[in-house]
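Human: Can I borrow your eye for a moment on a structure tokenisation matter? Separate attempts, laid side by side, tell us more than any discussion would. Could you pick a protein and write out its sequence and tokenised fold? No explanation is needed for now; the record alone will do.

Assistant:
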Amino acid sequence: MCKDGVDYVELQTKLGTMQVDEEKIIRFPVGILGFSDNHRYIIVEQEGSAFSFLQSVDDPELSFVVIMPELVCCDYSVQLSDEDIDLLQIKSPEDGKVYGIVTIPENVAEMTVNLQAPVVINTKERIGAQFIIQGDKYHTKHNVIAEMHKNAYLLQKQSEAQEGAKIQESV
């Protein structure tokens, strides 16, 4: 479908009917873990929410709730290999955006985010992939609410320590 000179794809999703600008489609060359047949996605941001949706264009019934990991874990970082950087065609760190896939059970207070297998998207080239981080720092089930509370506490303590240092310097 073409509207105002822009090609759109119309999707009937769980979120409702969407008209997706084909230029905004993100290609996932190897798919998402467990969903290797789906290679085209879009990010659907929710205004006023920390959560977004990673919506499949290939299967409109498939979408993932995602969150930026640094909102859950302030010191979160991903080290990509040279192969990963080549796959995503990333030229500078600013080109990349990282998301964690969220699982929301019946009891929302128990929702978790997978920080061990982040989704990384090259926002310039519109290429994405999910990677598994080696090591034991991150896990597949970090409790979102507990981690956000811990994050807020740590940031407050850090801010208080900086204020204390400023006061001591001025004395």
Observations:
- Residues 111 and 125 are 31 Å apart (CA to CA).
